[in-house]
């Protein structure tokens, strides 16, 4: 123990500057959290994620990584510098002291602002504990990756070089995947590396695959036997990473694995890029400015089932004179900005012809014409004076009902949804006029909207979270729902939606309207299509000149 | 007879198609100062790395202080000091910090000796290693490897690139501690004079092979340069045999390097070979001359 502490003190001394910087970052983050200047939950679209919040996390992550890399490279645990390898320092002492360093001075401090964030915004303490465990687990996994990679690189530059090399592998993988699915995806996606990378876990697998390659390449630093053992370890760990998310955490009793963790940002990003939806409808429209009408025949959905489709993405591309031009990829939420009441009613007709089809996007105002497709200014500009093919692809999930839970408004009953995180996607009822406030249990933001006592919840097929722009969810939903309009709302909800969490005011509203409580429908994204036959698609007339 | 400090038997090591060591066997007696000489690429560093468990031999075995070299671990390194030419030191540490850090790991750490060597080597104790010159770094590495009075000190090209003053400090520190405490020193070098001055056992390598491994005095005794003056016009054709490693003729003078010189008996034998020689004289050789003679002959 004395030697471990001795070793630990030496590491602290030698890394005091970078460690000080790291702790300063943590302190700043804590202060920001306390002052609520920088919400740690930046559940946002890509554009927002590239903003200050994302930069903050990049800086945070870079320093976090640098501390560990310096720690390991200053004296590799299994490393290559002969000075340390020929000293009588028992590996156990070195390993334990460095683990203490990583855990005590890197991971635990990073936990402070996050847990404070949760506590300050009313997350129940047991949820905070669960979240803390999940964060620690995730960070330990990440730290382990860094330790291994740092062990087999000699300096910081080489470390980041290998990271770059792995990124190249990642992109190569993305492209390979894109082309391997070329029959399913439009040309636009093929020209956009990374769009079709759907699973963070696979990325992790590629990461470790790259690590194995780098270990083998560098085997002469030690011996081939050790490199082989570490390579096998990498493979095993990558397999573990592939499965840890859906299986390991629930077995640990952790229900809210990533919900509370800002460190989930990469996962969110990966999910946001997840375009491998169960169905993809693709249409090719010959565009000719002189002939400004066209027809969009959507392809049939892939399979039958009892779910409902949820459109999440609309991709457009234009091929002037046979040359593919990437025009835009928008998630439905963003694409819906381009649907306005004075445009053609294609989308609305699609919805009307296919009852149960939910379109993920902004709220459609009551008593207004249904939205229609409109080109973005960028698209319009590119199409002007052009002749070519316009591709429109619609991608989405198919939802199937997994659980129906009734939540009475009185008493202490509550429904426990068997998932760590749910996504509230729709509010629907045959009654209207009730005000309902649904609180995100344990979250800072309260969702307030005039809603109806039936709530649809979506659980991602892998129990992962979705990415919903907050502004859409919070700001624009109020007082816009009506009883006969299929609408959707998005928010993160805790597992437990307790009726007792509803305010007295809301409860009174419900009771005043004769409602007894909420009914939650939990849907899970499945690969089964919703229709027995071809989906009905209205004719589509395209007027590129209109705005 | 005590156990040798280092014992190697049929060591071989190859890096892909390049054979760095071929069937190398030698032993280093306890208490000796063994100098391993050889040209660049001879395999000196590879040998040392195998002994220090920094590399694994493809075949053969070696023991260091009784430990199989491939199992040499932190326990063994309590008694072994290792300094190499291009060793990467913990640059962010000062000399004092380095010594303070290492101290608890060595049961035989001699604080008094540490102070003495620090003064003797004239090291700036509070300066970071990254701010020290190459020679100073070498001295710091040596200091950190001497103060626990190692039973075995392994030095890989310790004198390479050092100026004479630093070199003198270095060797004084070396001799003053390890030798006095009856430790064993195993060093590789290309500096023949320094090795001759410090070592009492010599190994000479050519790429991949160990040609000679024996005590220095024995080596100096058995190698002799012999000068034979021939009668004018004599052109003898002689089978030199295994004992003559080098022979040059210049006019009427023949210079031989004899590797099994046995005094009068050898001279008598040569006189029988050169019956018309007017004089036959033997001269002692320096280690440099022996090294060059061996290296030239055996590598051509």
Task: Walk me through what this model shows.
Chain A is built from 17 helices and 13 strands. With 547 residues, chain A is α+β, with helices and mostly antiparallel strands. Chain A has helices spanning 2-14, 16-35, 46-49, 52-73, 82-85, 91-120, 125-151, 156-180, 187-190, 200-217, 224-251, 265-272, 332-335, 346-353, 377-383, 470-475, 504-512, and strands at 279-288, 308-320, 325-331, 358-359, 387-408, 414-416, 422-427, 435-439, 446-450, 454-459, 487-493, 496-498, 517-526. Chain A folds into 3 domains: 2-272, no CATH class; 279-397, no CATH class; 399-526, no CATH class. Chain A is globular. Chain B is of the alpha/beta class. In chain B, strands 6-7-8-3-9-10 form a 6-stranded mixed sheet, sandwiched between helices. In chain B, α5 links the parallel β7 (152-156) and β8 (184-189). Chain B starts with 5 loop residues before the first strand and ends with a helix. Classes of the chains: A alpha+beta (547), B alpha/beta (300). At the A-B interface, α1 and α5 of A face β6 and α2 of B.
Give short descriptive properties of this protein.
heterodimer, A: 547 residues, alpha+beta, 3 domains, nine-stranded mixed sheet, two-stranded antiparallel sheet, globular, disordered C terminus, B: 300 residues, alpha/beta, Rossmann fold, 2 domains, six-stranded mixed sheet, four-stranded antiparallel sheet, 9 helices, 14 strands, 29% strand, elongated
């Amino acid at each position: 123990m004395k030697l471990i502490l001795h070793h630990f003190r030496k590491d602290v001394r030698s890394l005091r500057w970078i460690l000080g910087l790291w702790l300063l970052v943590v302190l700043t983050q804590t202060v920001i959290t306390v002052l609520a200047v920088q919400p740690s939950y930046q559940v946002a679209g890509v554009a927002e994620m590239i903003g200050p919040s994302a930069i903050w996390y990049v800086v945070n992550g870079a320093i976090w990584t640098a501390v560990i890399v310096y720690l390991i490279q200053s004296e590799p645990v299994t490393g290559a510098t002969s000075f340390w390898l020929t000293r009588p320092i028992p590996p156990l002492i070195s390993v334990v002291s460095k683990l203490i360093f990583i855990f005590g001075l890197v991971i635990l401090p990073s936990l402070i602002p996050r847990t404070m964030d949760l506590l300050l915004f009313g997350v129940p303490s047991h949820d905070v504990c669960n979240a803390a465990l999940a964060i620690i687990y995730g960070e330990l996994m990440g730290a382990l990756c860094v330790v291994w990679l740092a062990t087999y690189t000699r300096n910081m530059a080489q470390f980041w070089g290998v990271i770059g090399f792995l990124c190249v592998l990642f992109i190569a993988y993305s492209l390979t995947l894109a082309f391997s699915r070329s029959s399913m995806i439009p040309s636009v996606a093929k020209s956009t590396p990374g769009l079709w990378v759907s699973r963070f876990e696979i990325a992790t697998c590629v990461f470790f695959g790259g690590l194995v390659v780098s270990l083998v390449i560098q085997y002469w630093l030690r011996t081939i036997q050790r490199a082989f053992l570490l390579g096998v370890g990498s493979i095993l760990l990558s397999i573990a990473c592939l499965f840890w998310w859906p299986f390991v955490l629930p077995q640990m009793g952790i229900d809210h694995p990533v919900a509370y963790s800002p460190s989930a940002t990469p996962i969110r990003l990966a999910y946001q890029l997840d375009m491998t939806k169960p169905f993809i409808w693709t249409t090719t429209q010959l565009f000719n400015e002189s002939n400004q009408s066209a027809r969009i025949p959507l392809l049939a959905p892939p399979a039958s089932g009892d779910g409902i489709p949820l459109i999440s993405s609309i991709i457009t591309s234009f091929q002037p004179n046979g040359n593919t031009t990437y025009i835009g990829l928008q998630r439905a939420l963003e694409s819906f900005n381009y649907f306005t009441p004075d445009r053609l009613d294609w989308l609305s007709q699609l919805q009307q012809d296919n009852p149960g089809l939910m379109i993920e996007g902004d709220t459609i105002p009551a008593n207004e014409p249904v939205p229609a497709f409109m080109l973005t200014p960028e698209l319009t500009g590119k199409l002007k004076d052009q002749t070519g093919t316009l591709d429109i692809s619609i991608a989405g999930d198919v939802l199937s009902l997994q659980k129906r839970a009734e939540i009475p408004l009185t008493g202490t009953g509550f429904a426990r949804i068997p998932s760590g995180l749910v996504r509230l996607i729709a509010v629907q009822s045959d009654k209207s006029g009730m005000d309902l406030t649904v609180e995100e249990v344990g979250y800072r933001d309260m969702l307030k909207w005039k809603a109806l006592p039936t709530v649809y919840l979506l659980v991602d097929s892998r129990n992962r979270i979705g990415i919903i722009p907050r502004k859409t969810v919070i700001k624009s939903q109020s007082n816009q729902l009506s009883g006969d309009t299929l609408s959707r709302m998005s928010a993160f909800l805790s597992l437990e939606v307790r009726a007792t969490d509803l305010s007295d005011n809301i409860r009174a509203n419900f009771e005043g309207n004769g409602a007894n409580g909420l009914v939650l429908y939990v849907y899970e994204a499945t690969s089964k299509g919703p229709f027995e036959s071809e989906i009905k698609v209205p004719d589509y007339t395209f007027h590129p000149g209109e705005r | 007879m005590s156990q040798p400090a280092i014992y190697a038997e049929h060591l071989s090591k190859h890096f892909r198609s390049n054979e760095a060591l071929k069937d190398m066997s030698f032993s280093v007696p306890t208490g000796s100062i063994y100098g391993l000489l050889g040209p660049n690429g001879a395999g000196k560093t590879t040998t040392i790395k195998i002994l220090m468990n920094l590399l694994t031999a493809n075949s053969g075995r070696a023991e260091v202080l009784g430990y199989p070299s491939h199992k040499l671990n932190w326990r063994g390194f309590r008694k072994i000091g290792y300094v190499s030419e291009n060793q990467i030191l913990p640059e962010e540490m000062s000399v004092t910090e380095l010594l303070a850090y290492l101290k608890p790991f060595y049961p035989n750490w001699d604080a008094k000796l540490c102070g003495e060597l620090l003064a003797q080597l004239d090291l700036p104790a509070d300066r970071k290693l990254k701010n020290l010159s190459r020679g100073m770094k070498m001295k710091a590495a040596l200091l950190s490897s001497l103060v626990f009075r190692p039973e075995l000190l392994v030095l890989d090209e310790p004198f390479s690139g050092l100026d004479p003053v630093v070199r003198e400090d270095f060797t004084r520190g070396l001799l003053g501690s390890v030798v006095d405490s009856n430790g064993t020193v195993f060093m590789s070098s290309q500096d023949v004079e320094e090795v001759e001055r410090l070592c009492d056992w010599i190994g000479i390598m050519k790429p991949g092979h160990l040609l000679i491994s024996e005590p220095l005095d024995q080596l100096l005794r058995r190698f002799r340069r012999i000068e034979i003056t021939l009668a004018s016009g004599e052109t003898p054709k002689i089978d030199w045999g295994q004992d003559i490693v080098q022979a040059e003729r210049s006019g009427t003078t023949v210079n031989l390097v004899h590797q099994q010189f046995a005094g009068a008996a050898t001279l008598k034998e040569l006189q029988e070979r050169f019956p018309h020689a007017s004089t036959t004289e033997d001269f002692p050789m320096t280690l440099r001359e022996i090294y060059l003679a061996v290296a030239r002959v055996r590598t051509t």
